[in-house]
């Protein structure tokens, strides 16, 4: 009888231990954190087609550059320090400046029509954007730099009051050669020709790659409602390619073009 009781007790202990082991394993499995797999990017693009036409005022099908609310910004690391050197160009436009047009103009307004662009939201093969800046119109907010080392260091010329100088070496221009869909966002990959003289003896054209973002059009509730949209272009280039040797700036110059348009 005692032997039977001992055997029964041993079997009971084995069953209890086994059950406890099973429970502990089950709880361990409950504590396993599942691996989260990010779903593939799904584009969400519309079919907007936006073009300047002849830029006729009052025609809502023709889009105009809103230069007052646009900007072309530059930045580069200040060598030997943690901060950035930054600035903007006061004078710029969205025009494909030809050789014949690369001259100085006796005007304080836009010397050329801002009509060298077109945007097709879902057909980047038809999208293009061209533009220019006047180098001596770089504005850092520090007059000592703008009228001093910026002019000398970037190989440009002094500002002449009442003129818009689109002649080299004061001209830098971009011309898109290819626009593609970005597979990782709703934006676009843009290949550009950058033509700039810098401190070289003649202008040099180099190919650079940047990104283009479309800020969708929306309606402004004014007395006479109108629509607006934006294009943000970003790219970088190596200023040493253009003979810029200043040790105060890094090799890479980052450019950000924030172009706003309306159909007033």
CATH architecture: Beta Barrel
- Uncertain residue segments: none
Helix content: 10-25%
Give the domain tally: 1
Instruction: Provide a count of the helices.
Output: 2
Q: CATH fold name, please?
A: Lipocalin
Distance from N terminus to C terminus (CA atoms, Å) equals 105 Å
Would you count the extended β strands for me? 15
Order of helices and strands: HEEEEEEEEEHEEEEEE
| CATH class descriptor | Mainly Beta
Sheet having the most strands: 13 strands, antiparallel
CATH homologous superfamily placement: Lipid/polyisoprenoid-binding, YceI-like
How much of the sequence is in beta strands?
Answer: 35-45%
Mean pLDDT, to the nearest integer, reads: 89
Structural class: alpha+beta
The 3D shape can be described as globular
Short summary:
By secondary structure, this protein is of the alpha+beta class. It contains two helices and 15 strands. It has helices at 2-30, 143-153, and strands at 49-50, 64-65, 71-77, 84-89, 92-93, 104-105, 117-120, 128-134, 138-139, 164-165, 171-181, 188-196, 204-220, 226-238, 252-262.
Structural commentary:
The chain is about 15% helix and about 35% strand. A hairpin with a 7-residue loop joins strand 12 and strand 13 (about 205-220). The chain is an alpha+beta fold and about 260 residues long. It has one domain (about 50-260): Lipid/polyisoprenoid-binding, YceI-like (Lipocalin), CATH 2.40.128. The termini are far apart. The protein is built from 2 helices and 15 strands. It has helices at about 1-30, 145-155; strands at about 50, 65, 70-75, 85-90, 90-95, 105, 115-120, 130-135, 140, 165, 170-180, 190-195, 205-220, 225-240, 250-260.
